[in-house]
């Protein structure tokens, strides 16, 4: 979707402010949102692409107003309700509906050390899934404007670059995000010159590398 | 646009206050209420939540990445493995399960400078750098890193010579990036542990260089 989250190349956002000695979390509730996200994710009722999609679906004025973890919290509530893990009524009352079953959490404390750092997103070498492109080939990012989730930023659409590396086989976010299937395919690092992306004023020494799926690319 | 570090730090505090004023005051209550609901329904284990907070506040963070960088600086064979197969090389030091996530280490040299962004959200190599700082997730960095990378670097105090190739890696997929910064001159006598102490988080995202001595507050 052509959402406000797709920020690459936008103007008017001001300077970048780096905080010195920044804490991991600025408030206790931010930490709770982060770990709630990881723990409810262990139910595997939705995947990482759906999780990102539901942050992108936050209305633009809200998206820009909310702090980072407030967006996460909003997304978590939406997905918990959508998947039936909790009801709207439970969110409002803060207690389980009468008769709701008490379940056993999949992420027990004993498993935290193993899963905390393992997101299971290693590349897969799947010989049956053939790459459409090879390193060194010229490609064009497709001009496409899907209304659902996509990981092809607007600033690269229609632009020509070169395959730099083949990263292996991954799920395709556009279909994986909304239940249309994993559609596994190759992902490449595609190298674009800044001049191609931004025009003649850009430095001839600047390049942007994007990680793009087969379905985002065509021969150029 | 080239604000000095102290000025930028002051502005960051203002921005932080500003941002948090805009959060509804009851957000912490809403988060607490959701958590007690999740616990009561048996959807989450409260002990697991506490263990996860402890992991990300105390066990995971840029010190992990700094140890990887220092090892690469002092052990040429390790550096070669890191650049060829980063997940395996990182797993050697125990920071990543080999099935954890695909990571690419990109090396800064006098001729090529790498920096990392996620323009679409906030993708960041959690196991080796911890959770991303606010600036990395900010609209300003996400918007500008790809169109005005040299301007952004100047705000971090790094003026890159015009003829140095600048590669910006936009983390649009599940690849995660570790910038291997240049080892600073004048550190030949230092051991691996001392070197690791010099390596800043920002240098591993590619927005600053590692200096031979480090003021404590900049870590």
List the helices and strands and how they pair.
The complex is a heterodimer of chains A (220) and B (219).
Chain A: H1 28-41, H2 48-56, H3 60-65, H4 68-82, H5 88-93, H6 112-115, E1 138-141, E2 160-170, H7 173-176, E3 185-193, H8 194-198, E4 206-213, E5 217-219
Antiparallel strand pairs in A: 1-2, 1-5, 2-3, 3-4
Helix pairs in contact in A: 1-4
Chain B: H1 5-22, H2 27-40, H3 46-59, H4 62-74, H5 76-84, H6 86-92, E1 103-107, E2 112-117, H7 126-129, H8 134-137, H9 139-144, H10 149-155, E3 165-170, E4 176-180, H11 192-198, H12 201-205
Parallel strand pairs in B: 1-4, 2-3
Helix pairs in contact in B: 4-5, 4-11, 5-6
Give the CATH level 1 class of the largest domain in chain B.
Alpha Beta
Overall outline of chain B:
globular
DSSP strand (E) fraction of chain A?
15-25%
Order of helices and strands of chain B: HHHHHHEEHHHHEEHH
How many domains of chain B? 2
Distance between the termini of chain A: 25 Å
Low-confidence stretches of chain A: none
Sum up the overall morphology of chain A in one term. Answer: globular
Poorly predicted runs of chain B: 1-23
Number of helices of chain A: 8
Q: Count of helical segments of chain B?
A: 12
- Enumerate the strands of the largest sheet of chain B in spatial order, edge to edge or round the barrel: 1-4
Number of domains of chain A: 2
Oligomerization state:
heterodimer
Tally of DSSP β-strands of chain A: 5
The third-level CATH topology of the largest domain in chain A is Cyclin A, domain 1
Question: How would you sum up this structure, described in words?
Answer:
The complex is a heterodimer of chains A (220) and B (219). By secondary structure, chain A is α+β, with helices and mostly antiparallel strands. Chain A folds into two domains: 88 residues, Nitrile hydratase, beta subunit (Cyclin A, domain 1, Orthogonal Bundle), CATH 1.10.472.20; 82 residues, SH3 type barrels (Roll). Helices cover 29% and strands 16% of the residues of chain A. Chain A has eight helices and five strands. The longest helix of chain B has 18 residues. Chain B has two domains: 59 residues, no CATH class; 158 residues, Nitrile Hydratase, Chain A. In chain B, strands 1-4 form a two-stranded parallel ribbon. In chain B, strands 2-3 form a two-stranded parallel ribbon. With 219 residues, chain B is mainly α. Chains A and B meet through helix 1, helix 2, helix 4, helix 6 and strand 2 of A and helix 1, helix 2, helix 3, helix 8 and helix 9 of B.
């Amino acid at each position: 979707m052509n959402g406000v989250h797709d920020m690459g190349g936008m103007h008017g956002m001001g300077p970048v402010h780096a905080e010195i000695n920044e804490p991991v979390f600025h408030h206790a509730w931010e930490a709770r949102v982060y770990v709630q996200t990881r723990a409810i994710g262990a139910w595997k009722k939705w995947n990482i692409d759906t999780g990102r999609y539901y942050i992108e679906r936050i209305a633009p004025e809200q998206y820009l107003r909310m702090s980072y973890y407030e967006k996460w919290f909003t997304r978590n509530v939406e997905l918990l309700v959508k998947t039936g893990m909790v009801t709207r009524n439970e969110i409002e009352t803060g207690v389980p509906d009468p008769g709701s079953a008490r379940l056993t959490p999949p992420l027990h404390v004993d498993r935290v050390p193993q899963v905390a750092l393992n997101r299971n997103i290693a590349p897969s070498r799947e010989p049956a899934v053939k790459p459409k492109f090879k390193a060194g080939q010229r490609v064009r990012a497709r001009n496409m404007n899907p209304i659902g989730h996509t990981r092809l930023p607007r600033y690269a659409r229609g632009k020509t670059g070169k395959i730099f590396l083949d990263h292996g086989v991954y799920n395709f976010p556009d279909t994986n995000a909304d239940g249309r299937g994993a559609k596994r395919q190759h992902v490449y690092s595609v190298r674009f010159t800044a001049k191609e992306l931004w025009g003649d004023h850009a430095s001839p020494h600047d390049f942007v590398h994007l990680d793009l799926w087969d379905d985002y690319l065509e021969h150029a | 646009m080239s604000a000095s570090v102290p000025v930028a730090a002051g502005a960051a505090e203002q921005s932080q206050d500003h941002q948090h004023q805009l959060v509804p005051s009851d957000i912490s209550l809403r988060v607490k209420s959701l958590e007690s609901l999740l616990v009561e329904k048996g959807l989450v284990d409260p002990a697991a939540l506490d263990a996860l907070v402890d992991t990300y506040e105390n066990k995971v963070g840029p010190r992990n990445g700094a140890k990887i960088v220092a090892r690469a600086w002092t052990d040429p064979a390790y550096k070669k493995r890191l650049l060829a197969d980063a997940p395996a090389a990182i797993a050697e030091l125990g920071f990543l399960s080999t099935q954890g996530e695909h990571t690419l280490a990109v090396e800064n040299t006098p001729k090529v400078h790498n920096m990392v962004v996620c323009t679409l959200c906030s993708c960041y190599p959690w196991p080796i750098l911890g959770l991303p700082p606010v600036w990395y997730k900010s609209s300003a960095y996400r918007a500008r890193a790809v169109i005005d990378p040299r301007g952004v670097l100047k705000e971090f105090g790094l003026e890159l010579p015009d003829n140095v190739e600048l590669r910006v890696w936009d983390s649009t997929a599940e690849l995660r990036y570790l910038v291997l910064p240049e080892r600073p001159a004048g550190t030949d006598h230092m051991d691996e542990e001392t070197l690791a102490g010099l390596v800043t988080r920002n240098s591993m995202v590619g927005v600053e260089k590692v200096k031979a001595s480090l003021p404590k507050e900049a870590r």
